[in-house]
Amino acid sequence: MKEIDQRMETDSVGKVFLRYLIPSLVGMLLMSVNIVTDGIFVGHRLGGVALAGINIAVPVFSIFTAISLWIGIGGATQYSFALGEKNIPEAQRIFTRSIIMVFLITITLAGIAFIFRVPLANVLGANPETLPYVMDYMTILLMFGFAFTVENILSIFVRNDGDPNLAMIALIVTAVVNVILNYYFLFVLDWGVSGSAGATIMAVTVGIGVLSIHFFKKSSRLKFVKFRFTKKSVAKTFSIGMPSFLSELGLSVFTMGYNIAIAAVAGTAGVAAFSVLNYTHSVILMLFLGMSSAIQPLISYYRGAKRQDREQATIRLAIKTAIGTGLGFFIIGLFGANHIVRMFGDFSPEIVNLATMAVRIFFAGYIFMGFNFVMMTYFQTSNRVGMAIWITVAREMLFMVAFLIILPPFFGAEGVWASIPLSEAVVAASIVIYARRKHIFTKGIQ
């Protein structure tokens, strides 16, 4: 048994959890910096309309991320399970198959989207005012977006192979390079939103180089080996990873839905205000994703090793951490909304007022969102994929869309901002009801 496996099974659950949680949180926080940096620099350099244009193009980025999470989490869950069973050859076949799958699918979809990029921009919510910015940003993403998926899936597997610190370092390097290049391309070379997109792509490429260091470590079990695509193996990867894919796809639905809904009640100023909210949301969302990413290797490994006691302790600790963090974000949004908005630029009073109101209302959803993310990951990695899919579909598709249709005619912009908090609360209640019916909290996690 390797030293990594020994620590997984003998160190205290809290110590193992922190060993994965801290690098995952830091890494995801800095991954979100790649998105937020674009917003901050573009907002200050090019103004609110350009910022709105980038926000409209963000769902393209989300689709690439969704694909990498779909296959990455689906493959990595099987990978860690195989490690728990001490079946290294099978783990390596899973890794190789996952990397090839994500690369082929990304290239194919990007090529199709590039051909139809103008209609795609219009579907995403572009108007004559924002279309030039949307096209400049989206074109770069479609041409080189496969780099996002490669970095993301490598980061997932490196973390699952017992090296969460390297995954964190890679994302730190990516974030630092992105900040430097964004400033240089926008303020020195004056390349506009295309320069911002190019800076992000180049930074991600550097991150891939850092992650590749893991292959040369003695402790690494990540190796490219011969494998076969079988219907069963591909279906299993897609099945396990489906909740992660839908969760990220739901982010695209969220962005499109909010863009359309707020534009209908508040025009371009409302879209610009949502852009500020969405950039802030992306940071917090990544932190919650970091929490769920931290427990995924642990739950998968303990399942494979048949250590139910450690599995139960891990998920309980993650739930407490998520709820406490969500309350903290709610308090920050309630009292610091104006400061958060001002960070993105000097906007008109109308945009500032709309964005400040948005932060104060929207941040209430974080009380429930972290809990929902953690439980989705638990169900996903414990053979309750159906419940995990319900959580992802309900929170950013089913209930959110319903509230976006019902509330704005009565409450205007406030109804738009309140749709996600209400959706998250309803989904959290459904999880508690399900857990009580299955005796998950009363008799221990099954």
Could you describe the 3D structure shown?
The chain contains 16 helices and no strands. By secondary structure, the protein is an all-alpha fold. The protein has one domain. α2 packs antiparallel against α3, α3 packs parallel to α6 and α10 packs across α12. The longest helix has 75 residues. InterPro entries: MATE_fam, MATE_MepA-like, MATE_MepA_subfamily, MdtK-like. It is a multi-pass membrane protein. It comes from Listeria booriae.
Question: Can you summarize this structure?
Answer:
By secondary structure, the protein is mostly helical. Helix content is 85%, strand content 0%. The protein has one domain.
Strand content: under 5%
Biggest pleated-sheet summary: none
Radius of gyration: 21 Å
State mean pLDDT (0 to 100 scale).
84
Number of helices: 16
What count of structural domains?
A: 1
Shape: globular
- Give the termini distance in whole angstroms: 27 Å
Order of helices and strands: HHHHHHHHHHHHHHHH
Low-confidence stretches: none
By secondary-structure content and strand pairing, the structural class works out as mainly alpha
Percentage of residues assigned to helices? over 70%
- How many runs of DSSP E, i.e. beta strands? 0
Pfam families: MatE (PF01554)
Protein name: Multidrug export protein MepA
Family: Belongs to the multi antimicrobial extrusion (MATE) (TC 2.A.66.1) family. MepA subfamily.
Membrane topology: Multi-pass membrane protein
